[in-house]
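Is this the right way to post structure tokens for a design question? Let me know if I should format differently. Anyway, here goes:
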């Protein structure tokens, strides 16, 4: 009699579970395709709902959680969950042990198990001690974060620190140029609200906002709510999906109502970043129209500036900030949500190129957020100290992003050979936390999910074609890449 091979039996059981998850996936998608549809539900919500329904179905069927994790991979969400990082190389706790990021960022609780790495909690305690020091520093300047801040733009110490940070990009500003916000989206909302308010004070309509497609679409909803008209400039693959000077010029000539241009300097979803020369060309177009009497504000979204090679980010930002003649109509929106994996903390800020413009915009902060939470500002200051003292943490975060992007590309290439899914797998500029690729004719995000178990977001979510799909490396690690 042959001896029983328990490992073979276990492997057979795992493969059977994988097949059951695959069957459940196909059944859920079949129900979606044949069930009632509504055009009012955006594609990103449709995909999110399908993933949630499938995960719930797998639980109800009692399927192995490990098989479900392998067969249902949600790559719709962009945020990095540092508690779920599993990647590590070399010695545990070493510079390439990415599991320790949660400890080093002060997020992991003392004694928390991070996929085999036990957090001592030193970072957690240090961060709170720094918050105490920050509060003492503010009180010494006469600012009490525990009382109502009538100006609502945030404490002067932190604003001054963020202004100093702009000097690395050749921009000389003070705290008077800076206003704090609860993440980049909140900051953009306040900027659009403020510009619309200033227009109405001059008995003018807010005008219109120009967006490039594909692009992050939340500001479109914000702009519409404040009475702006929306214009979209469709970019081309041969231009790496970037706004070109001719396209911007054409859009401004054809739409004289445009008062705001929204520019994502390092793009979501496409992962391509503007070069210094490309930014200079766009500014030259704005300069020409300014000479004709047009007042057009440039809102530069920097949410992903910091995810790429530092020298390249520095070059593009120095080019952008060098146009001092456009300072009074340029707004820079920063955030640590993606660059520093701190999405839940909502650290965002705005830098206005002109102090007078910043003062005029203050009413938008006063009449919206009311007063920024004192505890939030103290935590923001503590993190500013952390990244100033330990810049290597930023390099580590970039390293994690680079590792996951390369693994995801290899995984998608493997699936493409097996299923014939992609017409073009685009390389990124070593930036952001996404992959943007073109699907083959007849393939959509739902058939990709059915064949691979990876859920992405269709291109129409970003004002483009569903021939394209965006995947995120965020919440979940990339396995078997």
């Amino acid at each position: 009699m042959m001896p029983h091979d328990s490992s073979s039996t276990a492997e057979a059981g795992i493969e059977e579970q994988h097949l059951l998850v695959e069957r459940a996936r196909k059944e859920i998608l079949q129900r979606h395709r044949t069930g009632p549809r509504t055009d009012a539900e955006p594609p990103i919500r449709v995909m999110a709902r399908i993933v949630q329904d499938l995960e719930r179905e797998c639980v109800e069927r009692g399927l192995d959680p490990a098989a479900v994790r392998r067969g249902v991979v949600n790559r719709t969400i962009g945020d990095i969950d540092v508690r779920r990082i599993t990647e590590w190389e070399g010695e545990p706790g070493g510079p390439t042990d990415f599991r320790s990021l949660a400890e080093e960022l002060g997020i992991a609780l003392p004694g928390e198990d991070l996929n085999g790495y036990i957090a001592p909690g030193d970072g957690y305690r240090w961060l709170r001690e720094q918050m105490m020091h920050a509060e003492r520093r503010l009180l010494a300047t006469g600012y009490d974060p525990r009382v109502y801040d009538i100006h609502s733009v945030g404490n002067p110490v932190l604003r001054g620190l963020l202004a100093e940070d702009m000097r690395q990009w050749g921009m000389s500003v003070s705290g008077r140029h800076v206003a704090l916000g609860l993440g980049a989206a909140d900051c953009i909302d306040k900027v659009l609200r403020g510009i619309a308010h200033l227009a109405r004070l001059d008995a003018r309509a807010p005008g219109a906002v120009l967006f490039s497609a594909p692009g992050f679409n939340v500001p479109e909803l914000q702009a519409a709510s404040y009475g702006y008209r929306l214009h979209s400039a469709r970019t081309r693959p041969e231009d790496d999906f970037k706004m070109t000077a001719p396209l911007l010029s054409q859009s401004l000539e054809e739409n004289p109502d445009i008062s705001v241009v929204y520019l994502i300097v390092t793009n979501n979803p496409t992962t391509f970043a503007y070069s210094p020369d490309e930014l200079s060309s766009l500014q030259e177009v704005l300069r020409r129209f300014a000479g004709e009497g047009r007042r057009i504000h440039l809102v530069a979204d920097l949410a992903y500036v910091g995810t790429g090679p530092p020298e390249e980010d520095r070059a593009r930002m120095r080019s952008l900030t060098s146009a001092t003649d456009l300072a009074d109509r340029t707004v820079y929106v920063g955030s640590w949500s993606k660059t520093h994996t701190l999405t839940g903390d909502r650290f965002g800020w705005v830098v206005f190129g002109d102090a007078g413009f910043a003062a005029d915009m203050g009413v938008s902060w006063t009449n919206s957020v009311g007063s920024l939470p004192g505890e939030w500002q103290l935590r923001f200051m503590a993190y500013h100290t952390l990244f100033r003292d330990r810049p290597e943490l930023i390099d580590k975060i970039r390293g994690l992003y680079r590792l996951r992007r390369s693994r995801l590309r290899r995984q998608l290439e493997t699936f493409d050979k097996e299923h014939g899914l992609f017409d073009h797998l685009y390389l990124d500029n070593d930036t952001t936390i996404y992959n943007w690729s073109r699907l083959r004719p007849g393939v959509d995000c739902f058939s990709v999910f059915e064949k691979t178990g990876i859920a992405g977001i269709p291109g129409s979510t970003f004002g483009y074609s569903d021939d394209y799909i965006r995947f995120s490396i965020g919440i979940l690690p990339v396995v078997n890449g």
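Format looks fine. Someone answered above. Worth noting: The first helix runs from residue 6 to 34. Residues 419 and 451 are 7 Å apart (CA to CA).
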